[in-house]
Amino acid sequence: MADTGYAWWVKRLTAAAGMYDVVRFDHFRGFESYWSVPAGDKTARNGHWVKGPGMDFIRAVRKALPELDFIAEDLGFVTPEVRQLQLDSGYPGMKVLEFAFDSREESDYLPHLYPVDSVCYTGTHDNVTLKQWFDEASRQDKAYAKAYMGLNRSEGNVWGMIRGGMSSVSRLFVAQMQDYLELGGEARMNFPGTLSSANWTWRAAEGFDSDKLAKKIRKMTGLYGRLKRS
Prior knowledge:
Layout: H1 7-17, E1 22-25, E2 33-36, E3 48-51, H2 55-64, E4 69-72, H3 80-89, E5 93-96, E6 118-121, H4 130-136, H5 139-149, H6 157-166, E7 172-174, H7 177-180, H8 211-223
Parallel strand pairs: 1-4, 5-6, 6-7
Antiparallel strand pairs: 2-3
């Protein structure tokens, strides 16, 4: 791919640019190094680490698509080398609120630790919904979240968490529609590592996009200075 100037990638990302304003590079750590498994092996045991294309790839994409913005999905096994590549790329990393409230130790996902150059998510397509998180999290973790976020009964836990993300310094905030609708486990998007007829099948019910909900989202978006300036 390097010999062609990453033409396959450029073609794919050009197509994505026709549909989206921002593209997320999933498994960003693979651009620094990745676990290579021999073809035909039934497990990953015989794999080994291989150096990825690094900044050579980033520079090629930046040159071909200077107007397209990217997000680095820097979750999982992040080494100092991966973190350096993310910083060198200039792509903002991801901060997931659902990862923040482990009562046993301080987490890098607590909003007061976010850099401005980041994207805050309530959760991703691979996580439980916020309602499900509150249904299933330990009593200590929920107490931690409530104390940290200042959650209250009148606002509700889900919208309180959304408020916490909206008010963070992250340059972009992303909430799943399931969270805006306060849906539970029945609306989970995907359960990684499983084959299920439920994965990737959730669809919003007719009428989900009510004026009431739109006004509520707009009000909070404006409150925290996230409305697009004309």
